[in-house]
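Here is one chain, start to finish.
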Amino acid sequence: MKQVKIFQFRAFVSLLAAFSFATLAVTGVILYITPPGRIANWTNWTFWALNKQQWIGLHTCFATLFFIVSVLHIWLNFKPLISYFVNKAQAASKFRVEWLLAIIVCGIVFAGAMKPFAPFSSLLNLNDRIKFSWEEPKQRAPVPHAELLTIEELAKAAGMEPDIILQNLNAGGIETNISDIFGTIAKENGFSPNELFAIATGTTPQTRGFGYRGGDHAGQGQQGGFGQKTLQVACDEMNLNIQKAIDILKAAEIEAVADKTIRQIADENGVHPSRIRQILENQ
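Its structure:
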């Protein structure tokens, strides 16, 4: 009786090559439609729960894996491949025509990518239209990659005083200083840079703040900041039962009462107000 091998390395390499190629195809299509980095990073863009950098990471890693297994595949089948090409090279001229045609097609694609002409120009233009279709004027950063700027640099780009931005952030329960990186602040407080920028400029409905010019109540945003609201008011706005909220916070080792402000509760429990906000919003 013929003994069956438990593990076949050739089959393993072939399957690995197939799986990695399939993953490359999927990630390639998704990267074709992703927005530019300045949009993706500013809005915390995700697709299937993965952000742009994660999709790029997947594509890069599986491209490396595919390259490695391709080299292994050639090594395992080196003699048959050499024999195949030698035999074909000695065969009819039809094979040489196929080789020539394949080289010509690759050359045309290369030229079309370098200096686009139809239909390659249409393909690349479609790519641009899809990528930039994700951007909305209200979500546009004041400058590209604004999330990499400090508060001071961002204030200059937005035409605001740094102190105004700091006051608006503090009114929203976010403590920072002018030398902190804006994107880092957003990540630490569970916001996208775009959402945090709305708070920083006083244009978000929940935190109409200092420097907001949208109505007669401009400059009174301290009263509307999340940190300055009582737990009762915050729960009413989130449609949460106050007793349920108190119990949820208690389960997270945060003691709270309805008539205290979020800031007071946070200070008494040694946490940041944004932590309380995250707990309540996740219910």
